[in-house]
Amino acid sequence: MSYNLLKGKKGIIFGALDERSIAWRTALRCHEEGAEIVLSNAPVAMRMGEINKLAAIVNAPVIACDVSSNEDVSNLISKTMEHFGGGVDFILHSIGMSINVRKGKHYTEIDYGFNAKSLDISAMSLHRVLATAMKMDAINEWGSVVALSYIAAQRVFPDYNEMADAKALLESVSRSFGYHYAVKKHVRVNTISQSPVRTTAGSGVKGFDGFMDYAEKMSPLGNASSDDCANYCVMMFSDLTRMVTMQNLFHDGGFSFTGVTEAVINATAPSAP
Ligand SMILES: NC(=O)c1ccc[n+]([C@@H]2O[C@H](COP(=O)([O-])OP(=O)(O)OC[C@H]3O[C@@H](n4cnc5c(N)ncnc54)[C@H](O)[C@@H]3O)[C@@H](O)[C@H]2O)c1
After folding, report:
1. In angstroms, what is the span from residue 270 Cα to ligand 1's centroid?
2. Is the pTM of this model over 0.70?
3. Domain of 60: which CATH number?
4. What's the first-to-final CA gap in the chain, in angstroms?
5. Which of the residues in the chain have pLDDT under 70?
6. What's the number of domains the chain is made of?
7. Domain containing 28: what range?
8. In angstroms, rounded to a whole number, what is the distance separating the alpha carbons of residues 272 and 143?
9. 40: closest CA among 86, 5, 79?
10. What separation in Å is there between the alpha carbon of 166 and the centre of ligand 1?
11. Best substitution site from 52, 94, 126, 198 to test ligand 1's pocket, by max atoms within 8 Å of Cβ?
């Protein structure tokens, strides 16, 4: 169902790899709500070709951009402005990559070169996108930027590895840059801290299936799906949330504020003799 919440709005969506990606689901919802979109992903991800299917559905150009490259980000922003004939109203940063997880390195033994790359792609890239957009005056007044995070930024999930540090940094960049962009142009910047969902990035975390099940049991409403997350992003891009900025917004069925649930107690209590 469409409410036309994004009618007339233009945006960039980073990170749609395949139809399970949160960015993919969000692009579909934004299109349904009337937005015009530019899609972007790393050149290596684009070679898989899936994103072109999405591009055809939402009628969007696809512009390659490795977010760890200043040049790529500038090129993306200037091509997007050319395409729209002006600035954008929203940006979704839906990007994560842990090189140490990929290489099977335990958190206590990470490689710092890989770590620097992971933090750059997963967190400082938000700074790079915002700084480039600010320099090129690419985000319209009252624009909205959302980046996706995870509660490992606040609490320990041992197998989340260096991504916990990346998410803490991402949330900090969102707050710090959010201040400056609000003062300069009323642009708001927030992170959405999402429930686990089975995607390429999500499934990279060790023991992911058991973990999804645990999160489901620990969330009074159950895990939030990618489509639920897409709805939340639409609301954050709409004019209904103009005064929300510099926040980390939990979108997790209540997981973040739950101490324990009956479902968890029942699953762990020793069975009666
Ligand atoms: N899946 C989950 O359980 C979960 C939970 C909370 C938050 N998140 C976050 O949601 C976001 C999207 O992840 P997803 O679960 O949809 O998985 P996904 O694998 O579909 O998306 C991750 C995207 O990051 C892109 N990417 C990686 N390196 C890049 C680079 N150098 N330049 C540009 N793009 C690059 C990938 O190509 C991919 O499209 C990530 O930030 C992730 O940490 C995911």
Report:
1. 38
2. yes
3. 3.40.50.720
4. 52
5. 272-273
6. 1
7. 10-268
8. 57
9. 79
10. 12
11. 94
- In 3D, which of 167, 172, 175, 178 has the Cα closest to residue 143? 178
Domain for residue 5, yes or no? no
Give the pLDDT score at 273: 59
- At residue 76, the pLDDT reads 98
Residue 150 among the catalytic residues:
yes
Helices marked H in the chain — which ranges?
Answer: 22-32, 43-46, 50-58, 70-84, 99-102, 112-119, 125-135, 163-185, 200-203, 208-218, 226-237, 262-268
Protein residue with least CA distance to atom 5, ligand 1: 196
DSSP-assigned beta bridge partners for residue 250: 193
> What does the pLDDT read at residue 5?
98
Using most ligand atoms within 8 A of CB, pick from 12, 18, 20, 22 the residue to mutate for ligand 1. Answer: 22
Spell out which residues line ligand 1, taking CB within 6 angstroms: 15, 17, 21-23, 41-42, 45, 66-68, 94-97, 121, 148, 150, 194, 196-197, 199-202
